[in-house]
Amino acid sequence: MPEIVISTFSGSGTSTVKIVKPSDIQLHRGYVFYIKITVDGVNSVENPRDTTAYLGPYDLRIGCYADSVTFTNSASFVTSVLVPVGNSTIARYKFYEPSSNRAWCFILSNEIRDQSGNVLTDAAKIRPSADVTQTSPHTVFDLVSTAIPEDVKFTFTSHWPNSMTHTSPVATVSIYCGNWYSISAITTVTSPRYVSQNSGITDGFIIPKYMSS
Question: Which residue segment(s) compose the domain that 114 sits in?
Fold first, then answer.
């Protein structure tokens, strides 16, 4: 069976509209083709004459074909999020997905990766949210822990039909110590403390131990 076929679409006689389409409509690909036009004509009873012309090339691009699709990052894409130490780990990052210039090209899945391009597993520092009802493609993500201050950096790779991908800019979730914590000394020190000018290296002001709450 030929890769592309011509089918009658509508009309009749000279007004018939003919459509070129692929024989397999599930494929994402491009087709370049020519159309052979033959006009039957007779210049005499003894000498029938046909006129033939090849018109084209014509270009037909089907589905999510790489040469006809472009991807654009969302204007709402978030590059930085602040999360206080000890805060909830649930739904700490919302991924605003990129779009394509073809309405029929939609995202199949989103993978979260480190800055080197490695796919992050559920054991990593950020993962698809377990407390938000969502199916693939995932757009809401949990932190694994907020116990210590650190910067969690990552990107997203969105997968589209026809094995096409798009990688987002780098995003950062910064887990930080807020300035609302109370800090106090938990050991007693002598102040002022008096020592001689020839005292040993350990004979100086003893810094107290502190705790935050």
Answer: 69-176
Contact between 86 and 146 under an 8 Å Cβ cutoff? The reply is yes
Q: How far is CA 83 from the centre of its chain?
A: 23
* Residues 80 and 167 reside in one and the same domain: yes
Q: How many domains does the chain have?
A: 2
Distance CA 28, CA 19 (A): 18
- In-domain check, residue 130: yes
Q: Kindly state whether residue 122 falls inside one of the protein's structural domains.
A: yes
Cβ neighbours of residue 59 closer than 8 Å, sequence gap 6 or more: 30, 31, 32
List CB contacts of 47: < 8 A, sequence separation 6 or more.
none
Main-chain dihedrals φ then ψ at residue 14, nearest 5 degrees: -70, -15
Q: What is the CA radius of gyration of the chain?
A: 34
Q: What is the pLDDT of residues 116-157, one digit of tens each?
A: 888 877 557 898 888 766 677 889 999 999 999 999 999 999
Q: List Cβ neighbours of 181 (8 Å cut-off, separation of 6 or more).
A: 212, 213
Q: How far apart (Å, rounded) are the C-alpha atoms in residues 128 and 145?
A: 14
Task: Name which of 134, 69, 132, 133 is nearest 102 in CA terms.
Answer: 69
Q: Are residues 75 and 154 in the same domain?
A: yes
pLDDT tens per residue across span 50-60: 678 888 899 88
The CATH number that applies at residue 89 is 2.60.40.10
Clarify whether residues 42 and 100 are in a common domain.
no
Q: What's the confidence (pLDDT) of residue 4?
A: 61
